[in-house]
Write a structure and sequence with these properties.
With 360 residues, this protein is mainly α. The protein is built from 14 helices and two strands, in the order E-H-E-H-H-H-H-H-H-H-H-H-H-H-H-H. 56% of the residues lie in helices and 2% in strands. The relative contact order is 0.09.
Length: 360
């Protein structure tokens, strides 16, 4: 059965350890199987589906922006992003937030998961990740890539700075696209996260603040003086962030990418709520009673490996200590004749051989 199952579960007991050694999870009692499936198994499956969906979404958005830029650069294979951003996008900027979601996210806590076992049914029907969900991630990524590319392009086209100079340059445009992209994908991850912990907050804010810190450092004059061939675009980040219309463009791009998602989810929950939405609503409005204290059962352990084939021995008698109780001993009389001299405790007279009468 373990060879054909997706995940093997072994019970460690008197039968041996062969099933435990060949399984993925092992526990001592069958009653732990309920929590393994309805709580931890369901959480793990939802986290994996969220990870796959978010992974496709953020990479579709990242790649399609480059695809739209190809129409404006004559399909010359020029990258719209800066080279260091392409390297750090999946390794640094978006790695920690999705890791925190995959480790700690949970739509419903453990008590409500056990109280509503029907939450396990959508996972059996592959409703969290299927072909329809994959197409929705593709459409969402395509829409966000259009907004992220064309809104900054329209706002910076023929734009000038406060001193009358042109603001349009490839480094400035690339930095604006990168900033809009990271803010949108981090906000989308925040919308997909149901259970927030201190680790999730730390990862999201660290990735966002770290992006600005790394970008300002790479575009600084000091990096250009030390490594002029690797960091030639000095001052691009500082000059771009100094313009008010750049921040307005970032805010407008953020609203056009996030507001449709929020509105769609709100309407979908009102019209066609799922079982997860209903349970989350009950969890916020109702209070689940505390479970009754579980009575601990005393288990009698045996040392024998063949305890099931043996008959009942003297274990109960030994543990009861009945054989250690001291009882008064009953003395039985050694002599039953009461007319003897020994019983009456009188002196006895013995005759020698010489005093015995001789026969004639």
């Amino acid at each position: 059965m373990i060879k054909v199952a997706h995940i093997g579960v072994g019970i460690s007991g008197q039968e041996g350890m062969q099933a435990v050694l060949s399984s993925d999870f092992s526990f001592a009692q069958f009653r732990y199987l309920q929590r393994l499936l309805l709580v931890h198994g369901r959480w793990s499956y939802i986290r994996m589906c969220k990870f796959l969906g978010y992974f496709f979404y953020k990479n579709f958005t990242f790649t399609l922006v480059q695809f739209w830029y190809a129409f404006f650069c004559g399909f010359s294979a020029q990258t719209v992003y800066e080279d260091w951003f392409i390297t750090f996008y999946n390794m640094v900027y978006t790695a920690l937030p999705v890791l925190g979601m995959c480790l700690f996210d949970q739509d419903v806590n453990d008590r409500w998961s056990l109280y509503h076992p029907q939450l396990y049914a959508p996972g059996q029907k592959n409703q969290y990740f299927n072909k329809k969900a994959f197409v929705s991630y593709l459409i969402h990524g395509c829409y966000c890539s259009l907004i992220i590319f064309f809104i900054p392009w329209a706002s910076m086209n023929d734009a000038v700075r406060n001193d009358g100079k042109d603001i349009v340059s490839h480094p400035s445009f690339a930095f604006l696209l990168q900033t809009c992209l990271l803010i949108v994908v981090h906000t989308q991850l925040s919308l997909d996260t149901y259970y927030w912990t201190a680790v999730n907050h730390f990862f999201v804010w660290l990735s966002t603040i770290g992006y600005f810190a790394i970008s300002v450092t790479m575009y600084s004059n000091g990096m250009f003086y030390v490594f002029p061939s690797s960091f030639p675009l000095f001052g691009a980040a500082r000059n771009t962030l100094n313009q008010p219309n750049v921040w307005l463009t970032i805010f407008l791009t953020f609203l056009l990418c996030i507001l449709p998602v929020v509105a769609f989810r709100f309407i979908f929950i009102q019209l066609r709520p799922t079982i997860n939405d209903k349970v989350r609503y009950k969890m916020r409005t109702e209070e689940l009673t505390a479970p009754a204290p579980r009575r601990l059962l005393r288990r009698r352990s045996t040392r024998s490996g063949y305890a099931f084939s043996h008959s009942q021995g003297y274990g109960d008698l030994v543990t009861s200590r009945k054989f250690l109780i001291k009882r008064p001993l009953k003395m039985t009389a050694l002599f039953t004749q009461t007319d003897s001299s020994i019983f009456q405790n009188q002196p006895q007279h013995y005759r020698t051989i010489a005093e015995e009468p001789q026969s004639p």
